[in-house]
Amino acid sequence: MRKLKKAAKARGERLHHSLAQDIGARILRGEYAPGSLLPNEAEWCDVYGVSRTAVREAIKMLAAKGLIVSRPKIGSRVRPREVWNLLDRDVLAWYWAASDQHHFLSNVQQMREMLEPEVAALAALNHTPPQLAAIEGAYNGMVDSTNVADWNVHDVKFHLAILGAAGNELLVPLGFMIESALSNMFEFTASHNEDVRKALPLHEAILVAIRRRRPAAARRAARALLEDTSGVIGEPRKSRSAAKAKSGNRKRPA
Amino acid sequence: MRKLKKAAKARGERLHHSLAQDIGARILRGEYAPGSLLPNEAEWCDVYGVSRTAVREAIKMLAAKGLIVSRPKIGSRVRPREVWNLLDRDVLAWYWAASDQHHFLSNVQQMREMLEPEVAALAALNHTPPQLAAIEGAYNGMVDSTNVADWNVHDVKFHLAILGAAGNELLVPLGFMIESALSNMFEFTASHNEDVRKALPLHEAILVAIRRRRPAAARRAARALLEDTSGVIGEPRKSRSAAKAKSGNRKRPA
DNA sequence: CCTGCAAGATTTGTATTACAAAACAAGGCG
DNA sequence: CGCCTTGTTTTGTAATACAAATCTTGCAGG
Fold it and tell me: Over the stretch A127-137, which tens digit does the pLDDT of each residue have?
């Protein structure tokens, strides 16, 4: 496992950061169950061939994300899932990598359905000129996009810009979740150019409603877009262990 | 500032943890603006009278929460607010302490209005027997409570239990935000015993709807409770710098 | 004068060592 | 049998040294 050291150097990544990434991914993968003890610091040093300093800094990062708690003589124990900071950038990425992707996407979609219509309505009420400009800029980026990757970049920007225009700072951290879902859905669907562009009028409707400060219209427009999107994902699963349906009626990401 | 060392020892808190708390609170308080540089590690050692090891581990915790980023020769720079992990336990606490509390509460209330009705509906659809038992247990705790503090403990449990029963893990981290709002609203209002108990039937309605698996009824009941709660907070503010209205028509927390 | 390269200085990153503190375990003693 | 002391293990803190990164400065050359 010494290769991690080289990998860190090659990427220009810091060693403690790489360690945190690796250990964190292991925890999310279930390699160390909640309530169980991690190997002690000396063992990690041994496993990765690094100093205790680096290991400790990595462990502090994971502790800060709520994954583990360390106490003298005991060691580092994995905390219960309920206190994990799932909405953290890194934790969300590890979660995405470790979980059934279809299940993950339908959970995010569920949250988007709660949030985005109201967020659009708030943005219609509260947006400032530069915030509106950001939304319009993202929309124009979608219009001008020539390939799917380009489209997706601006699509994400569009949704984040609306989130920022809602005037509620607590909403902003949720942007990463949506961003993650949109870009992952992108790979999930392998959609074509003509395909995605069908969603353009739906986006335009949101933009226009916000610009005209019509909260109810913005809410409706956001709902319409989400309805269109949900086809990509299919029915939400109840059970966690549902098989990964590899295909099924794909449509386009929002 | 050497007293921090003693404070940490007295509380049984770790030194690096105390440092992270203090530095984090300073950042949220605006003492170090986004984009600006923090003092370098040597200076922190000097200020607090601790070793570089402790300072570095504190800095790694703050970096893990998205507040800062460190680079050699540059130092630790405060990142833009958009990437702060505001929904993290600690960051939320610092934010609460640093911001206009009325503004904070109305922002949380806004999010509760987006989330809780749908969460109640989902809980009605997806709850498992132990999850329902947890909701009922919390409700009974509210019924049996003899003082406001006791009531509030179970009130928080009630809402968190519903959140857990919704069957969407991504919702759980938002529980802390709601918990924080509820318990802070408690102090904010200084409500009386008879006062809070008026909200009991509203809670019961949610519980019954969930138990009977009636999502629409659960959603309505949750909305009714929130409407009752919003009176405590008053009108949401548009501007960030609105004066702190010290009183105004208080009612009771949910 | 401007440009580009190179040496130096500064700050974080990593390693190593040592010791302190905490928590559990075990054994002795009342 | 139970309490207390002692010992052991693991994390917590400290101190030091050096590596790596990058900004700055100054020098050389056009």
Answer: 999 999 999 99
The alpha-carbon gap from B57 to the nearest alpha carbon of chain A, in Å, equals 6
User: Which residue in A229, A187, A216, A221 sits closest to A203, CA to CA?
Assistant: A221
User: For B190, left (φ over 0), alpha (ψ -120 to 50), or beta?
Assistant: left
The answer to whether A115 contacts chain B (CB < 8 Å) is: yes
Residues 6 or more apart from B209 whose CB is under 8 A from it?
B120, B124, B215, B217, B218, B220, B221
User: To probe the interface with A, which of B14, B17, B60 has the most A CB atoms within 10 Å?
Assistant: B60
Please check whether residue B107 is in contact with residue B242, taking contact to mean a CB–CB distance below 8 angstroms. no
Mean pLDDT of B58-67: 98
Residues of chain A (4-63) having a beta carbon less than 7 angstroms from strand C: 5, 8, 14-17, 50-54, 57
Collect all residues of chain A within an 8 Å Cβ-Cβ radius of residue B84: 173
> What digits encode the pLDDT tens for the residues B112-166?
999 999 999 999 999 999 999 999 999 999 999 988 889 999 999 999 999 999 9
Chain B positions touching A171 (Cβ under 8 A) are: 111
Q: Which of B57, B87, B238 sits opposite A173 (nearest CB)?
A: B87
pLDDT of A180 over the 90 cut: no
pLDDT, tens digit, 9 for 90 and up, residues B79-117: 999 999 999 999 999 999 999 999 999 999 999 999 999
Q: Is the pLDDT of residue A37 over 50?
A: yes
User: Which pTM does this prediction carry?
Assistant: 0.89
3-state secondary structure of B141: helix
Per DSSP, the residues of chain B read -THHHHHHHHHT--HHHHHHHHHHHHHHTTSS-TTPBPPPHHHHHHHHT--HHHHHHHHHHHHHTTSEEEETTTEEEEPPGGGS-TTSHHHHHHHHHHS-HHHHHHHHHHHHHHHHHHHHHHHHHH--HHHHHHHHHHHHHHHH--SHHHHHHHHHHHHHHHHHHTS-GGGGGGHHHHHHHHHHHHHHHT--HHHHHTTHHHHHHHHHHHHTT-HHHHHHHHHHHHHHHHHHH-SPPSSTT------SS-----
